[in-house]
Automatic annotation (TrEMBL), chains A, B, C, D:
GO terms for molecular function: chorismate synthase activity. It is an enzyme of class 4 (lyase). The lineage of its organism: Bacteria, Bacillati, Bacillota, Clostridia, Eubacteriales. This is Chorismate synthase. NADP(+) binds at R47, K53. It comes from Clostridium ganghwense. SUPFAM superfamilies: Chorismate synthase, AroC.
């Protein structure tokens, strides 16, 4: 089993980068939900390639078609399936390097996993392109969550070694998250953002690539969501985040740094303010015992640098079983982090929707 | 749904710290597997409290009783249920602080989640004590994996700010993992281990607590295990790791640090050596596209400091809805990391067993 | 996977007839539900053996112990596990016929399924005794349903060829269901009941056994429960009913007979009476398109005769691979149907609770 | 949750009768399986309408398009999604009767279940048309099973009160099943088949409809497939069969009749013949303790008469909440049983494939 996730709302993904279409079926949605299609399109464009020099020139409009579960502009409550046709596929680019395993890609593992029968063109089912249906599903989920007052937003916490400030886990504003969602390059500090962009272009020029960290916040979740064993909010969100290609680390609240604190500093002391339960700090990222505690959920996902680089790399030919080298040509993102921002939000929205539907 | 996990092998946990018993049912095990009961007992003791001055004085022998699924010293293939009676429960310790929410514990979230009906004594279902049945299940899983040549081991990578060396992700030895499993305090470098222990005792003396990081390795997994969406090896393991109380971060391979590397450094170049596919480095922690790539799986889990500290802390009374303070008395671990080592290995064994049973 | 069922409420069963204990864990129950323990005991006694000459003389009190998920007489919302110790086990009775496969029992299929490692004593995990934890779970589910006004009841529709009247699918009374639940032999018509009992005793005397049909009704379900594909109310209930040992047929409403009707007769015409939607007939058994339609749910489950008979039967020795014969001695029910009545109700309650918890 | 089924192979259905497309995603298929597309088309035609006077004149070619999971004529091992566009939709036919609930259809239950937001046109998601993607999935499953020697076939056991012979549960031939699959009207006895057809045409003429029974056999299954609680072969197959619109009863082996037999007649005595374990009779339909026993699986599914009839029927207007009448016009099947034959086989193939993939 691979392509299905969810306990209450189930997301069933399918497709290959150079196949007929990619898509997703969402099962278990409430009926009667009006969807803002233009808003979904806006989310799709946040992820889509070709918006600037920092992303691949592959030209995919990512136009989705809803096939089912949607009638008179509202969800019917039956499975909602949407597909996106693959238009700009230059498949022959790939046949010549079919047997040359690209380092840090899923070429070799996919080949073994599927006994050589997987669609190798453009990464096939492993392609970052599969995040398009995820963004679609996330956009639907976000709209449902928004009607319940729940907001999700994120920013680029770092690109390579260039970092910007953390979200303020105690006082983060909904307005900030909204602003960030309208930015082409989602940073709080534009000056640092400029440095990040320059760093990306420099890496590109040097035939290299960069990674980074996305920080995400979820506001206004009801208290008491999630379960201790084995369905903590952290479990659910990390499960989904680690499905995004290139994610190698996930941390909540103070994350790895909390392991260096003493209890007296790490503990989030509690108070009641104007009838609302709060904590003075938010080192636990809004989750205790796997359950939401009324504070914002805060987490970070670490992305590795794009494995596709034009430099010479040592690798193997899977057919001849010989060592060889590769220089990856073609249209690739020197850094995927900026386009990953809406994907992080999308899986978060999917996870949160599933959790609150219990 | 909370207490059940797994696709192919299902683990169903139950129990409260001060209830009649805690336990776990394992569904889907192969029949005919001989279990080394003494070996399971050894694993239980690795987690059990009271072994030294660094852990709680609560005296629980953690003796398990297998109720089903086991006949003539072998698994029958039907659900295997084991329980552990709660013996040393001093429940009256807890009633007096019933309504005072301990900071960074699950007292408040559990109260909301279960509408005040949860068993609050000793953390109830949220208690670290629930990791005892997890260690039981992990010990069973480990024995099955060992018969397939798969080894799991881990060490204390850090306590507070004191760190020891990383596992060597390329050349890690099975023998080292075995040695570590026999140590009361699982470090590679005994000298640093001594510093860590002193740091823990110092924190205890100062009525404070410490956290740390556990690093874990899985050797000799078949290549091609796992799936891209939504069941990557990282997804499965992080899902389980984030179910362990106190874990706030999980990273694979180079983890968060990989986000700072350039692709040319981060990429694990590939080669064939004596007919075996390998990578020169292991920044991806043995997983590409969510699937095992023949290299050791390497990951780290960050634990927060024990929230139970004897210092005065600000908090609330959930009944009177008033601000108050708390000084947590009783028998608590100043650092949970040492006892968490076998728990990290246990959930890893559970996850890997589920993955290879596909 | 075998022992776990449910989407919203999960039931995890374990145990063997002659092992340490049998039991069940219920995961996902609401917190704060007060349970009437005496009422659960009454349900257990309905199923328990030894009540009269028509059932086995095996003396099991079926006393359950709740291990978890229950505190201060209420559910905590965490997994509720209950076990029943096996007391009256005469295991040596079974060793001598270990390799002789009893016809129409699961001896042979169990042996193959579990590669000979299953606990063969008294049917092991296949034993009708495993319906005791099911009755426990059903009794819990029933109490929750009753608080929502939902009633479940059933009667012995037939024993062998002796039949009594059908439930009136349009006007069935809650009071009738309650009365039936207090009868030791659950028939509407006592005169026919007496005939049935005599038929059972006659079969027993002739070293033979009988089957029969249980008819069950569910009243006051909310309209709109269930789903078309693949989770119809019929799917859910039949799934569970066919898990009860000895069930070979399940039908809803007019069942197999509806296949002989013309549409103009079979169709349940609709009307509004005093603001309530009703149908004039109930050939569909209260379910249309897999979803409840406001009428009572009516269904029947067919039980085969007890396979354990004292007559000589042809069979095989699984060890020697030779043909042989068997005369089954020991304490067996000449007819299981009377004791199956609360089991049918139990799985129905489990299924309905799961369905309405969506 | 509604549209997803399966433990090892997951089938995710979507679509409405008059929406853009209907389809299904199959997740978990082995990679490298070559599919005979023409064979799938043949199965689709067995179900398709318009083949003769006994079925609706709605002209749907049921041409499927595989969107993913299929490359170079083989499965890739990633989710295989196929869609069927809805071509011949005359949606305005339906708007005028939108609020008039058709008796014994899912109009009313669907309206309540989805709060009035379901696509009511042509039955929407409840339409028999949704069995087209099921037949697609079943055709794929059948091909995989055939490579393992497993054969599935069925015949029309009865139409109304006209019955033909039962399958011989002990000696049924693969060849017979194949022959039946090529018949437009799948009966063993052509003479009785003619009577059945005449009966259907007569009912049609009289503005009425008929139901019937489909009997199905599965040959050459490995022994030891299935599990006692809660995943018996009967549970799995009945779960799927009761998802087919119009099925109201399912029985295995002797089914309801076994409840009338004495044990000495019902029990299937066992023997070894030429090294193979067999039973002399097959009253248990090839399943004992929920597990296959080496004999053919035999079961029957009862279909109610098509609810769409041109006669005047009493019903309600859901908007005005008033009693009214309806005469259903349009293109309807006077009997669905003949077209249901490949659907019964399809869900059987889906269920068996899931079971043997454990």
């Amino acid at each position: 089993m691979s392509g299905i996730w969810g306990n209450n709302i189930r997301f069933s993904i399918f497709g290959e980068s150079h196949g007929e279409a990619i898509g997703i079926t969402i099962d278990g949605l409430e009926s009667g939900i009006e969807l803002d299609i233009e808003e979904i399109n806006r989310e799709m464009r946040r992820r889509a390639p070709g918006r600037n020099k920092m992303s691949t020139a592959r030209n995919e409009k990512d136009e989705f078609e809803i096939l089912s579960g949607y009638f008179n502009n509202r969800t019917t409550g039956t499975p909602l399936c949407a597909i996106i046709r693959n238009s700009d596929k230059r498949s022959k680019d790939y046949t010549k390097i079919k047997n040359i395993m690209r380092p840090s890609h899923a070429d070799y593992t996919g080949n073994i996993r599927y006994s050589g029968f997987n669609d190798y063109r453009g990464g096939g089912h492993f392609s970052g392109r599969l995040t398009a249906p995820i963004v679609f599903a996330g956009a639907v989920a976000k709209q449902i969550l928004r009607k319940k007052g729940i907001a999700i937003g994120s920013h680029i916490k770092s690109i390579g070694e260039i970092e910007e400030e953390y979200f303020d886990g105690v006082n983060i504003e909904k307005e900030l998250l909204k602003e960030l969602s309208y930015k082409e390059f989602a940073v709080i500090n534009e000056e640092i953002g400029l440095k990040m962009k320059n760093e990306i272009l420099k890496a590109k020029e040097e035939k290299d690539s960069l990674g980074g960290i996305v920080e995400c916040a979820v506001l206004n979740l009801p208290t008491g969501i999630g379960s201790p064993f084995f369905n903590s909010v952290e479990s659910v969100l990390s499960h989904l985040l680690f499905s995004i290609p290139a994610v190698k680390g996930v941390e909540f609240g103070a994350g790895f740094d909390i392991s260096k604190m003493r209890g007296s500093k790490a503990n989030d002391e509690i108070c009641i303010e104007e009838g609302k339960v709060k904590t003075y700090t938010n080192n636990n990222g809004g989750i205790l015992g796997g359950i939401t505690n009324s504070m914002p959920i805060i987490f970070r996902a670490a992305f590795k640098p794009t494995p596709s680089i034009a430099k010479v790399q040592r690798t193997i030919n899977i057919e001849t079983k010989e060592n060889t080298t590769i220089e990856i040509e073609g249209r690739h993102d020197p850094c995927i982090v900026q386009r990953a921002v809406p994907v992080v939000e999308a899986v978060t929205a999917m996870g949160i929707l599933d959790l609150i539907s219990q």
